[in-house]
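Contributing new complexes? Match this layout with flavin-adenine dinucleotide.
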Amino acid sequence: MLSSKQEEFRRKTRNFLIREIAPSVVDYDLKEEFPLDNFNKLSNQGLMGLQVPIKYGGMGLGEIECGILLEELGRICSAHATIVGAHLGLCIAPILLFGSEVQKKKYLPRLSSGEIIGGFALTEWAAGSDVKNIQTVAEKVGSDFVLNGNKIFCTNGNRAGLVIVFAVTNKSHRPSRGVTAFLVERWMPGFSVGKVERKTGIRASTTVELVFDNCVVPDENILGHLGTGLRVALTALDGGRAGLAAGALGVAEQALDHSIDVMTNDKAKSSTVNRQSLQIMIADMAIEVVAARLMTYNTLHEVHEYFKRLAIGEKVLRSSRHHISRNCSIVKAYVSEVASRAVRTALEIHAIEGLEVGQALERYFRDSSIAEIYEGTNEIQRLIIARDLLGLHSDKNGE
Ligand SMILES: Cc1cc2nc3c(=O)[nH]c(=O)nc-3n(C[C@H](O)[C@H](O)[C@H](O)COP(=O)(O)OP(=O)(O)OC[C@H]3O[C@@H](n4cnc5c(N)ncnc54)[C@H](O)[C@@H]3O)c2cc1C
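Output block (do not edit by hand):
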């Protein structure tokens, strides 16, 4: 399914990650520390601007290569996949799709080189699954907007130089037309970092509250148009979910590889290889991993084609948008659950050794269930899937 160039990209990326990134991931996890050193190494390889056109300082590749990178990162550390997924999928992608030429020239080279890290701030206490209930407001004052409110659980938030922030600009047009996306730089007055969350899993990926206290953002920093923020957010999340699935695929594959390894090479467990119940577990994992892989790359391919059309301003039918959203929800829900099941099965096969702190499986166990929650819980993915299948869209009469 992948071209020979893409396979070559995978081979080089995997070698680089194993050599340069893998040795330190346990340490960053145990210290709950953002792996800035590793982020810089990835940037130096050009990987932080993977899908950015060469003219804006990127590598000029696409969604498939982003998926390959996230899958390979997922194999070694979900926290690293999360950091990179937020930077590439939730910050850079919406700028490519909705940014003005001025915004692209201003931000993409700096994001691609890793000079600044990207973030995406949608979630609030009352607006997690219910994104339409955003309370952060942006009021027009002269040629600026003044933002007030709090965002929570923002990945990369305390490291980001640029965050895409969603705020209500017109209460009477809400929910669907009243929200606007803003490109907010961390040094803009009134922007600060609040609580830093402590989490059971993906601990090297920092997740923070962002506080906007009369934060002044010039109106040229609107991403897209006034009132189109939800469209920007939901499109970014479509691509983000396909990328998240790629990271989860890497976790599932690694759990399978670990299990095969222990059943074939571990002398102390040599008899295990004969236990048919364990063989059946391995086979079940393999069946799901193969299905997950096909589904992930099929969806990434669809997203790549869809994003190419959006990036050149082509009109895309509403039904096509819904189709993409449905497929991204399907792949996100399915593959994140495959990964969680694979890790649990691998733990059963490894038994006590898999639970030791510092062991990869113990970390995968803490990390994997988070993919079922972020970028929309799997219950919400199921509602998106059902809404499309049953024709229950709220924008039936809209654009
Ligand atoms: C590690 C991590 C990183 C994150 N990074 C970011 C980020 O970078 N940017 C960002 O904006 N957000 C981020 N998030 C937030 C994430 O997207 C939300 O946690 C997620 O969307 C769920 O929202 P919530 O936690 O408020 O859950 P709630 O919306 O409060 O949901 C609670 C439970 O109710 C269920 N539920 C809610 N509504 C319905 C319904 N209508 N029908 C059926 N069940 C329902 C949910 O499935 C869930 O099980 C992150 C979260 C985590 C854990």
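Reviewers usually confirm one structural detail per submission. For this one: The first strand starts at residue 117 and ends at 121.
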